[in-house]
Amino acid sequence: MKQIDRKKLRAVCSVLFVLYIICIVYFLIFSDMFGRGGYDERRYNLHPLQEIQRFITYGDQMSPMSVFLNLYGNIIAFIPFGMLLRWARNKNTTFVQALLYSLGFTLVIETVQYITKLGVFDIDDIIMNTLGGVIGYCIYYVTAKLIRRYHAKK
């Protein structure tokens, strides 16, 4: 890929990354759509997989949208984070770095939810969001390898 094309792609990806971060912060902290009206007290779940198990066990008694959002939405929502991370950092990002950035960003979001009482600090959200970021990074990595291999054969 030409240097100018790479710079344009990096700029577009950086803008997309910033817009993505703004959207995630809005939806996970302020959006009424996800019941962010606030609690009277701080709420948290520090038992790994407890909420995931609850949604699996009692999912038939909940709305399908609620089950989907809680079991898959947290993963899907963070896939773009992992995919755009490499371009936003302007450096080669390793798997471990992608994992740590995904974990760190999720911890910030969950901590803000806890401090502001606008959500629940949930270890399961941290696990699933981090998994989504790592999946996104893996998608980026495999796609980049395939593109490089394709261009090398030309």
From TrEMBL:
Protein name: VanZ-like domain-containing protein
Residue spans crossing the bilayer: 12-30, 67-88, 95-114, 126-144
Organism, as annotated: Coprococcus eutactus
Pfam family, one: VanZ
Alphabetical keyword list: Membrane, Transmembrane, Transmembrane helix
Domain VanZ-like span(s) in chain numbering: 17-142
